[in-house]
Design a protein that fits this description.
Length: 416
Amino acid sequence: MGRVTRRAFTVAALSTLAVSPGATAAPQPPGTPAGARGGRGTTEMRGMWLATVANRDWPSRTGLTVARQRGELTALLDAAVRRRLNTVIFQARPAADALWPSPYEPWSRFLTGTQGKDPGWDPLGTAVTEAHARGLRLHVWFNPYRVALEEDPSRLAASHPARKHPGWTVPYGGKLYYNPGLPEVRAFVQEAMLDAVRRYPVDGVHFDDYFYPYPVAGRTFDDAAAYARHGGGFASRAAWRRDNIDRLVREMAAGVARTRPGTRFGISPFGVWRNGSTDSRGSATRAGVQTYDDLYADTRRWVREGWIDYIVPQLYWNIGQSAADYAALVPWWAEVARGSRTQLYVGEALYKEGDASQGAAWRDPDELSRHLTLAKKYPQVRGHVFFSAKEVAADPAGAMARVVAGHYRQSARPPY
């Protein structure tokens, strides 16, 4: 999900209340914001992504003490409450690693600076507990296939599954990825992710925009051997790749429902499925990336067929942007969601506000407020999610404060 978002930090980086088996809703503690859980008031998604890859939002750097890490985390949760948000999307598996004691993958190096080193506490478990104590819902965010931010597998922890199974990986564009075309890889990454869903009473499970990697000029994603072995019956390698991702989505949805019934599963893709010049069903855009063709992610199909509980397209462009106009994409996505069981939320580029390099529109602190005003015209839009937590807390351009003053004057329940 504007490209400086998840790509700049290698981040891209969601139908009922999720509870632990046999329980009801997470307890509502004293001081819970009115309307955050139950009661009367507005109903809409108000979320923020909390990115951990490359220490984008948290922790601020590697090697901090447990007390400092915990303090920074709870401060970001407090900021979500202060801004009258109701949902935090916490990145717990940024790069085939873990921010919980996983039996499948090593501890993330973004905690201690050394992959596999025990940080001395359980960040995901703490995030769930502390979010619920504040009346927030916690969605656990996974990146399915990214292994490392560099190509060299020798830099991974010795215990890393990618070192034990070197045939599972593909180096591409300076990074290392699991090969989505291998059934054994698809099974492994699901089991690794579902471990967290099994352990913690998370309210949602979230994928970002990375499936097959974003195209890199002059590079080829070398999955020829996997295609030769598993691609029989498909008209093209592109069709086979899309089927691989479709299978991941359907199987993960089933796994989440089986592991923790009621937990929601959602995805936040890059905001353009296909341009209208490519496909008459596409949007009135001229985007350089199309998820269907470049990431092999048929995001429109996932919504139309109801495979996921919610979708948060990353509409990280301003109103009037020439190649991908926010004002054109919101109605397009609203029409896609019309009549579907999949709820539509809009991903918002809070990080662009006040950044002079992003163009004149983003120097206006009212740009995001205008986004929310426009989106209210479309009943299919059930809320917004902001990228990301650091900007929600610091609000350097004052844009988030304007959103709160103009649109979030009272607390709201999530629409599930």
